[in-house]
């Protein structure tokens, strides 16, 4: 018997029980769809996390006092001397691979406007910080060199702060009180939304670094320097130059560990990538189990089908079907069920992935490899769970099958 | 046709036992039977006499417990299951009491079925199936499903299916058992016609009127052949030497 004929026989048999065939494939449909959706979701989340980290400035380096290896989280700020303004200037002047360097400091404060108040993060930054973070004003302007020079009592606020304190009012020109300091709002930053880590990126008020040092911190030592390299491939170069320069300026002896650390975003990206990767695998594995359950459903129905069609098997054997032909027919039926379930599942899964991407505001990623694997797995499920019923059919004795009532 | 010496079908000392020990049922107790090409043989006997078991062995659907079954001198019991399937496919055509057509499958597709397993190409299959359906007088009903056909028509489809592979022998197991007397005569006329055209036919029946269509009668009782010879004179009221007829079981 030719394979083409076997296939057409199998398809005819399935078409005769459309409803049952459809329900049988449902398990596989759901399994495949779930695998694809989970993978797409995981990949989308990974993309978003790495994208967000890149959004902080993929060329960004963070320099903190305290050795990186001594203690977790970069060591204590207290155990090593802070940086000075001259360090910042030196880095800008002497490190060729460095494009921007900014000093930053932060503190939690209550911001008050009129009757309303809100606890928020107060930042003091030098103007280049806006370049490093690639962050501009949606309204008004950002802080500039003049504000820094004058230690002006001016501030820029994030969108969340604006919404809470000003509502429909125009915040530009208004006086905002932060930590006993009254400052004029000169700009509202463009909205960045919630980060993947759950923090509201727009919940901040920014002062010139000089103003922050004098009025809030009471010292102009620099806790954290944010630096951006000239390009992504010059990050390592920038890192080496900064390390060499700071070792010299801070009199770190050869062979001694750095008393500061320079970190870049790639490390964070790597860690986050691993975390989301593990999550993706986990979700997809759970989904794969439902695929397995779908396979058992196929086996169940195939067994019922073999019993129900014993007479048909007998007739086929009486007119010359070999047991191999019968085996092939039922196996093809099972594989067809699984494979069509796989195809429907892929379509549903992709549609579902698109929906989820929309709902969670994630980039839509099509897991090509995952789709292929899920489909192959579905077909394999058809083979594995089809073999038993098909063998049962093929090993019937013709005379018994014919007599079956 | 080369080996004129060997009969087409031959059973030699065939026994068949179902079950074992105390519960064993001896369906056949040593049957010897030769069927030559071109014969039309009726196997007669009451229900449970072993005639259907013999038929299943002749049809390569079942194997003897002991003894031998030869087709043109070749011992069948030594053959692989796939070879038996090929035998059923190419050399034997079956007609069953219950028609045994595939439900929800058109007459044409039913008749094509053996040709599919013979690996005949689609176009050729269609042509031969249409031919066979026309030969049994069902031209125009090719697309009908068994449920849309009368009993007689269904049996005609079954005859067409048996014929379509041009088998050397047609085995008919109570071919008229489910039919009324008028339709029975039509089917038997059809078989008689095939026989006149040279077709070898072996038919199992308990009905002497039906058996009368066959020139040779073999009578079974309790798993043994008790009579084998030409049919009694057709118009005879009481068939001589035959067991009394029993009502339909």
Please state the structural category of chain A.
alpha+beta
The N- and C-terminal alpha carbons of chain A lie at a distance of 27 Å
| Percent of residues in beta strands of chain B | 15-25%
Helical content of chain A, roughly?
55-70%
Strand order of the largest sheet of chain A: 2-3-8-5-7-6
- Determine the number of helices of chain A (DSSP H or I, runs of at least 4 residues): 13
How far apart lie the N and C ends of chain B? 41 Å
Q: Provide the helix percentage of chain B.
A: 25-40%
Uncertain runs of chain A are 70-77
Judged by helices, strands and strand pairing, the structural class of chain B is alpha/beta
Question: What would you say about this model in short?
Answer:
The complex is a heterodimer of chains A (405) and B (249). Chain A is 56% helix and 17% strand.
């Amino acid at each position: 018997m030719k394979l083409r004929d076997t296939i057409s026989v199998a398809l005819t048999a399935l078409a005769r029980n459309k409803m049952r065939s459809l329900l049988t494939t449902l398990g596989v449909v759901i399994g495949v769809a779930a695998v694809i959706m989970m993978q797409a979701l995981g990949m989308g989340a990974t993309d978003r996390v790495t994208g967000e980290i890149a959004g902080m400035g993929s060329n960004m380096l963070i320099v903190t006092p305290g050795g990186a290896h001594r203690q977790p989280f970069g060591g204590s700020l207290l155990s090593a001397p802070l940086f000075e303004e001259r360090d910042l200037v030196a880095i800008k002047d002497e490190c060729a691979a460095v494009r921007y360097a900014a000093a930053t400091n932060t503190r939690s404060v209550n911001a008050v406007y009129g009757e309303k108040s809100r606890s928020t993060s107060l930042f003091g930054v030098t103007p280049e910080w806006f370049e490093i973070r690639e962050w501009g004003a949606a309204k008004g302007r950002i802080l500039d060199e003049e504000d820094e020079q004058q230690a002006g009592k001016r501030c820029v606020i994030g969108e969340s702060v604006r919404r809470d304190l000003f509502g429909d009012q125009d915040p530009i020109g208004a006086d905002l009180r932060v930590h006993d300091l009254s400052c004029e709002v000169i700009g509202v930053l463009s909205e960045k939304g919630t980060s993947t880590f759950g923090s509201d990126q727009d919940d901040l008020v920014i002062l010139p670094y000089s103003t922050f040092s004098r009025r809030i911190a009471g010292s102009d030592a620099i806790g954290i320097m944010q630096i951006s390299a000239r390009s992504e491939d010059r990050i390592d170069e920038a890192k080496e130059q900064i390390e060499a320069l700071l070792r010299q300026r801070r009199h770190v002896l050869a062979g001694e560990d750095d008393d500061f650390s320079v970190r870049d975003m790639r490390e964070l990206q790597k860690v986050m990538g691993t975390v989301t990767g593990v999550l993706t695998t986990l979700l997809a594995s759970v989904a794969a189990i439902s695929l397995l359950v779908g396979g058992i459903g196929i086996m169940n129905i195939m067994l019922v089908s073999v019993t129900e069609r014993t007479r048909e098997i007998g007739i086929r054997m009486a007119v010359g079907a070999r047991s191999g032909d019968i085996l092939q027919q039922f196996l093809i039926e099972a594989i067809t069920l699984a494979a069509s379930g796989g195809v429907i599942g892929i379509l549903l899964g992709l549609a579902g992935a698109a929906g989820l991407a929309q709902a969670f505001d994630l980039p839509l990623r099509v897991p090509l490899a995952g789709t292929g694997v899920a489909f192959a797995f579905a077909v394999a499920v058809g083979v594995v769970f089809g073999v038993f019923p098909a063998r049962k059919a093929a090993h019937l004795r013709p005379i018994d099958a014919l007599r079956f009532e | 046709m080369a080996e004129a010496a060997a009969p087409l079908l031959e059973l030699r000392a065939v026994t068949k036992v179902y079950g074992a020990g105390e519960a064993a049922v001896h369906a056949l107790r040593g049957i010897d039977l030769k069927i030559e090409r071109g014969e039309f043989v009726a196997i007669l006997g009451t229900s449970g006499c072993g005639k259907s078991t013999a038929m299943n062995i002749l049809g390569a659907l079942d194997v003897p417990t002991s003894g031998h079954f030869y087709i043109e001198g070749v011992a069948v019991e030594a053959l692989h299951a796939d070879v038996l399937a090929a035998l059923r496919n190419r050399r034997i055509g079956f007609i069953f009491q219950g028609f045994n057509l595939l439900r929800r499958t058109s007459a044409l597709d039913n008749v094509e079925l053996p040709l599919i397993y013979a690996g005949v190409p689609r176009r050729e299959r269609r042509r031969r199936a249409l031919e066979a359906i026309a030969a049994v007088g069902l031209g125009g009903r090719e697309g009908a499903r068994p449920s849309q056909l009368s009993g007689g028509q269904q049996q005609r489809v079954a005859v067409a299916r048996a014929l379509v592979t041009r088998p050397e022998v047609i085995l008919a197991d109570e071919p008229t058992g489910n039919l009324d007397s008028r339709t029975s005569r039509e089917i038997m006329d059809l078989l008689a016609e095939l026989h006149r055209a040279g077709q070898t036919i072996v038919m199992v029946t308990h009905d002497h009127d039906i058996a009368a269509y066959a020139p040779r009668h073999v009578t079974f009782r309790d798993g043994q052949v008790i009579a084998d010879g030409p049919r009694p004179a057709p118009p005879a009221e009481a068939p001589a030497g035959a067991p009394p007829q029993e009502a339909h079981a």
